[in-house]
Description:
By secondary structure, the protein is α/β, with parallel strands linked by helices. The chain has helices spanning 2-22, 25-32, 59-71, 85-90, 150-158, 170-178, 189-198, 226-242, 244-253, and strands at 34-39, 42-43, 47-49, 56-57, 74-79, 96-98, 112-127, 142-146, 163-167, 184-188, 205-208, 214-221. It folds into two domains: 24-119 and 217-253, D-Maltodextrin-Binding Protein, domain 2 (3-Layer(aba) Sandwich); 120-215, Periplasmic binding protein-like II (D-Maltodextrin-Binding Protein, domain 2), CATH 3.40.190. Strands 7, 8, 9, 10, 11 and 12 form a six-stranded mixed beta sheet that branches. Strands 5-1-6 form a three-stranded parallel beta sheet. The protein has a three-stranded antiparallel beta sheet with strand order 2-3-4. A hairpin with a 3-residue loop joins strand 2 (42-43) and strand 3 (47-49). Helix 3 (59-71) packs across helix 8 (226-242) and helix 3 packs antiparallel against helix 9. The N and C termini lie far apart (55 Å). Glutamic acid is lined by residues 82, 99-102, 146, 149-151, 187-188, 191, 215.
Amino acid sequence: MKKLALMLTMFCLILAMAIPALAGRLEEIEKRGTLICGVKDTVPQFGMVDEKTKQIVGFDVDMCKIIADKLGVKLELKPVTSATRIPMLAQGQVDLVAATMTHKKEREEQIDFSITYFNASQKLLVKKGSGIKSVADLKGKKVASVKGSTSEKNVKAAQPDCTVISFENYPEAFLALKQGKAVAATTDDVILAGLIGADDNPDEWEIVGEPISAEPYGLGVPENDSDFRDAVNVALMDAWESGAFQKAYDKWFGPKSKTPLPLTWTLELWP
Ligand code: GLU
């Protein structure tokens, strides 16, 4: 009898210890009172440092704000790069990644994704009059991109005879193009448009070629936590229905922005 009581106590103790570990990210965030979001800090219009306030601002930051507001918690931003965002999320250093990240099947092995919240496609950025018009013209040439991005892989797959030089971020890839170390820089069209928009001489540059690939962006969420993923998806859909999504979109991509881009797609909406 004594042995049974002891075993029962042990069982209860183990269970009590296991419960916090089983608690989902949603409870963790609510308890902490803060959503920790991984965002880029060098991508114009999505995640960049505001010169005046020194704060990170952009469309991806606004997506984080929408989620934090819906959860009723504060927002903390942590800078990520294309290479660090998935490991940081998988290791629990951030709760969410909003960082121009394409929802790729292969990335599903490490993390999960929200519904698509932005649609981009990969293109080439070149100096006007360079003669480079498509990936075919990259044969035997150097092209600049970023480590850990889909862009560096896609361009090599589309043109196996080019040399890809990969940097930590897109402004560095653009700089390589300016310095003549590469004949083109490549990534998503909207990021390239942002780089041109932020440049001192925007008229010197152009985006060329047919789309190399479709790049649907998803918010990265921890693997196998459907309660949290549901909350993120519902927050996005609510924002679409309330007009908050459109407001954020217009702020960064509306007619008065540096990168005007009509919103041509709708968010997936569950009834
Ligand atoms: N959307 C692409 C990706 O997820 C390129 C942009 C980026 O590097 O964030 O890799």
